[in-house]
Amino acid sequence: MKVNFPSYFNNNPNFKSLEIGKQFFVDYSHNLDTIKDVQLSIDTTFIAFVLKGEAQFCSYQKTELVKEGEGFLVKKGSYMMSENLNNGEFQALLFFIPDELIQKTNLQMKLTPEYQENDTMELTINTCKITLNPLLQSYVTNMLHLLLSSNTQSSSTQFMEMKVMELVYYLYENDSFLDKIRHILSPVTNIKINEVVQKYLYEDLRIEELAFMCHMSVSTFKRKFQENYHMPPKKYIKKKRLEQAHHLLLTTNVSVIEISENVGFSSYSHFITSFKQMYDMPPLQLRKAQ
């Protein structure tokens, strides 16, 4: 399943949303089954506060689990998203923040989101968890009330812009968060295929999903993969998974079926067949032979 934020919420009757000028807010609430591994494209940087359940965001760089009562900032880009319900419900308050408003806030606070040459922070930070202090908790409560009230549309563009800027100010009040938000709001950097491949090498992901995490079409991903690894992605990934399985068989007491799952095979029978083709014997026989 592929979803684009924020266009997914445009004129969607299932969600209460508010769009005034370039400010866009959503009460993202649902009671669907647990959502797993949605391919999510984000066109506008947003801040979310999870009110019920928990959300997980996976980028090419890391996995961020955000629990009930926490917030997170997400940069434009491609992610895999999963959600877990709490008593059959999930709810998050989303604030989509246009670039020009961030720049305006930075200008007023005399901040710059640009890097210095000696900057030691990782240049590809794209998500950041937010701890809700009393100020933020009060802000979220008030904004949720405003969003759900019947006279929301009477709010002016200037008023809503001030509310978003207020949120950004609150975030900047946390010195440890300031450096991260500056990095998140920097231009999107090129993503290296090897970073994505090595991170998800033993995950049960399809080639299409790896290409998505690299912001590439499948054909471009396959071509660039061939240039980097001198073999097709499926062949390389299977080879590396079987080599890891071979290592685990000889160095651990983990069961064969667990090993097959740990190295990324969704089918146990396929794992056995592939292992035998590569090592001329089934995995259990190889373990007993040592």
What does this structure look like?
The protein is an alpha+beta fold and 290 residues long. It folds into 2 domains: 2-184, Jelly Rolls (Sandwich), CATH 2.60.120; 193-289, Homeodomain-like (Arc Repressor Mutant, subunit A, Orthogonal Bundle). 42% of the residues lie in helices and 23% in strands. It has helices at 99-108, 134-148, 157-172, 175-184, 193-199, 207-213, 218-229, 233-251, 256-262, 268-279, 283-289, and strands spanning 2-5, 16-20, 23-30, 35-42, 46-52, 54-58, 63-66, 70-74, 77-84, 90-96, 127-131. The strands form 2 sheets. It has a 6-stranded antiparallel sheet, with helices on one face. Strand 2 (16-20) and strand 3 (23-30) form a beta hairpin. Helix 6 packs across helix 7. The longest helix is centred in the C-terminal third of the chain and has 19 residues, at 233-251. Mean pLDDT is 82; it is low at 112-123.
CATH architecture of the largest domain: Sandwich
What's the main sheet like?
6 strands, antiparallel
Q: End-to-end distance, in Å? A: 44 Å
Total beta strand runs? 11
The number of helical elements comes to: 11
User: How many structural domains can be distinguished in the coordinates?
Assistant: 2
- The SS-based structural class is alpha+beta
CATH topology of the largest domain, what is it called? Jelly Rolls
Task: Tell me what portion of residues adopts beta-strand conformation.
Answer: 15-25%
What gyration radius follows from the Cα positions, in whole Å? Answer: 23 Å
Unreliable segments of 5+ consecutive residues: 112-123
Silhouette: elongated
**In percent, how helical is the residue content?**
40-55%
What is the level 1 CATH name of the largest domain?
Mainly Beta
Mean pLDDT comes to 82
In which order are the strands of the major sheet placed?
2-3-10-5-8-11
